[in-house]
Amino acid sequence: MSPPGMLYVTMQPKYGLPPAQFHEWYNNEHGPTRLRLPQIFSNGLRYQATDGKEPAYLAAYDVTSMAQLETETYLTLRANRSPREASTISQVDVKRYFWDLVAKKQSPLFLPIEQLSDEQAEGIVLVAVELGLKEHPNSEQEIQKWYEEEHFDMLSKVPGWLRSRLLKISSLETGVPTTFISLHEYAKENGIGGEQHKAAMSTARHDEILARYGTPKDRRTYSLFYVFGPGPRDLSSLSQLPTAASTFTSADAKTTTTNEFGPVIKSYVTAPDGLSIPYQLEGNPDPNAPTIAFCNSLLTSLHMWDPFVEILRAKRPKYRILRYDTRGRNSVPSPPVPSTLDTVADDLSHLLEALRIPKLDTLLGVSMGGATTLKFALKYPAKLEKFIACDFNAVSSPANTQAWKDRITVAETPLEDGAPGITKLAGVTVERWFHPATMKKTDVVQWMTDMVAANDIEGFRYGCQALWDYDMKDQMNDCKVAGLFVVGEGDGKGALVKAMDGFRALLGQKGAHLAIVPEAGHLPMCEAPGAFWEAVQDSL
User: Fold this and answer.
1) Helix, strand, coil proportions of the chain in percent (round to 5)?
2) Which of 93, 130, 150, 427 could pair with 12 in a Cys bridge, judged by C-beta atoms 3.0 to 4.6 Å apart?
3) pLDDT for 418 beyond 90
4) Which residues pair with 484 in a beta bridge?
5) Structure confidence at residue 175 (pLDDT)
6) Per residue in 335-352, pLDDT tens?
7) In terms of C-beta density within 10 A (0-12 exposed, 13-18 middle, 19 or more buried), how is residue 21 classed?
């Protein structure tokens, strides 16, 4: 059986390669591509040397089974480099090592680094000690026994010690002399160089090992500075690049980056059931910037927020902005499974984990996105500071469920001229959504009609079922997250104003304020973005 192990890559950028270009490529293309293969890589970590030696950078990936590195999945990944990757990597001195895990010991308080927040992980110290073998028949066994029987235990007494691992050059590396590397992780504040650490290096057995069995080859010290997730998120490096260098499109066209009018990353993450969820990340490039996320309505895309985001970026430049396409917009998982509010709330949680965003400052959703927002606040309160839920109902009704079933029939029935039925659904839907004043804005009407008509029909069939048979009223009193409710005055010809006013008092201990946007219907942020801003600005 193939052991677990590590892909260990040292890198030294050559003179002339801008640091931002090096980091943006690695953080937004190279690393996430590998983290999208959880069957191979359980994490991806980047370190910078603190000992003044070169190579200055290290990337370490824990591998579930070293045999995975000989599969077509991994080898194809390496062979099919993008032109941007090929160009950049030619400007970096790269050395790649495969290590098999031999032994380990960890603190009872140890947590895998990928489970920590960036704030918790940044600055963790890594000490890497490489040891060759002397010509003695028992060298390999004696070195391993020393680590397991003495050295690990003594290092565990060093303040700040987290974990130690012993790895051996992998069996994948044929024709290479056997070498060990020991990796020792410590908290930012630690006792390296202190009494306990010195004691671990000055035992009789330590001296015997170096005298008879092992030859020290290298000792390096590093500080952790970046943890990969499967979703590209490095706006900071991207923001430092000129437009030409920042513009990138992956071979599958699912990932693009640009800094033409500020840094923007468009990419995707994969839900546990295999569904691809597109997202767009933009705004403040500071990785510690507060993040506001948006949930779109059924049948629309993340671009329904374009007019409002333009205002938000001008009025509140402090925010990092995350938008994504709700399940059902583009496709369905295979085999198809009806959506629920739990499913779509879980999708957002998974997206945040993939982007390593531990907590949102604000979540803003409308219609099904509004229901998703409330469900997320109820289900994941620790991941959310506050929310704004717009034009939604806290409970479904049999009549509403039947209405969605009727709309599915319209969408799936081709028109007499052969056009897909969803084009008819788009027209009647926009007319139902929009306020009479908005219907006079032909450009806005056409924009929204086209957006609705472009929805995946099967995705609509399974996605709209999240709005069937749900009731959140009984849970609302236990909500621990502050919320604002917003509604267009003409939504449902005023019926939704009454409905939301009826359940707003149920939220938490104090209820929720209800803001009403004049001359707007079901999508006030699209119909009257300026008036919508007036309604929500105090919450942002």
Assistant:
1) 40, 25, 35
2) 93
3) no
4) 388, 513
5) 86
6) 999 999 999 999 999 999
7) buried
| Contact indicator for 58, 31 with CB cutoff of 8 Å | no
> Residues 171-191: what's their mean pLDDT?
94
* E runs forming strands in 73-191: 92-106, 125-133, 161-169, 179-186
Give alpha helix (H) positions in 108-253.
118-121, 139-146, 152-155, 195-200, 204-208, 235-239, 243-246
3 state DSSP class of 186: strand
Euclidean distance between CA atoms 377 and 365, whole angstroms: 11
Q: What is the separation, in whole angstroms, between the first and last Cα of the chain?
A: 54
> Closest Cα partner for 348 from 319, 322, 321, 385?
322
pLDDT at 481 over 90: yes
Domains of the chain: 5-227 (3.30.70.100), 271-394+471-539 (3.40.50.1820)
Tokens of 391: 């034009």
- In this structure, the strands spanning 5-13 and 57-63 are antiparallel
Residues 246/259, Cβ–Cβ less than 8 Å:
yes
Which three-class secondary structure state does DSSP give residue 122? coil
pLDDT tens readout for residues 108-158: 989 999 999 999 999 999 999 999 999 999 999 999 999 999 999 999 999
CA 137/CA 394 separation, integer angstroms: 73
DSSP state of 357: -
Closest CA to 3 of 94, 140, 150, 102: 102
Tokens representing 96 are 């790649």
Going by pLDDT thresholds of 50, 70 and 90, the confidence category of residue 78 is confident
Cα–Cα distance for residue pair 393/370, rounded to 1 Å: 8
